[in-house]
Design brief:
It comes from Nothoprocta pentlandii. This protein is an alpha+beta fold. It has one domain (7-148). Helices cover 28% and strands 29% of the residues. The protein is built from 4 helices and 6 strands. Strands 1-2-3 form a 3-stranded antiparallel beta sheet, with helices on one face. A 3-stranded antiparallel beta sheet has the order 4-5-6. It is globular. 7% of the residues are buried.
Length: 156
């Protein structure tokens, strides 16, 4: 009788032995890769929404101290967008190098470079973690899902 909360199970090729579970408006759980098997065993408590599978696949580039990943975001068989992930490897506190990241992204993205990610608002001077990256991917995927929803036409 309770309304369900969404939980997104995500994987990242940079962390092949980990599985990330992001709860709707909540924490990010980092577990080992067998978390998927546990979720199958708990299928009486969770409903799987396979139709909502979304992923980003692409190429990883390294330029000096920068790591750049460019991927095509797909939902089912069709492409829905492009994801660009940029990391400045020597820095572990993202706020400390945000201006440098922006300058680097503007050099190849121009005016399409993004603003400050929302995850920075809660992290101020904290160490950036893989969970923070997954939260940003989840925000991107949700934005793409919302853009794909077709409004229902009214009857005249």
């Amino acid at each position: 009788g309770q309304t369900g909360k969404l939980m997104y199970v995500m994987h990242n090729s940079e962390y092949p032995l980990s599985c990330f579970a992001l709860f709707e408006n909540g924490p990010c759980l980092i577990a080992d890769a067998n978390f998927d098997v546990l979720m199958v065993k708990l299928k009486g408590f969770f409903q799987n929404a396979k139709a909502n599978k979304i992923e980003s696949r692409g190429t990883r580039y390294q330029y000096c101290d920068f790591l750049v990943k460019v991927g095509t975001v797909t939902m089912g068989p069709s492409a829905r967008g492009i994801a660009v992930e940029v990391e400045y490897c020597p820095c572990v506190v993202a706020n400390d190098c945000w201006n440098l990241l922006m300058e680097f992204m503007q050099s190849f993205m121009g005016s399409h470079a993004p603003g400050v990610p929302s995850v920075f608002g809660t992290k101020h001077d904290s160490i950036y973690s893989p969970a923070d990256t997954m939260v940003q991917y989840m925000e991107l995927f949700n934005k793409i899902r919302k853009q794909q929803q077709v409004p229902v036409a009214g009857i005249r």
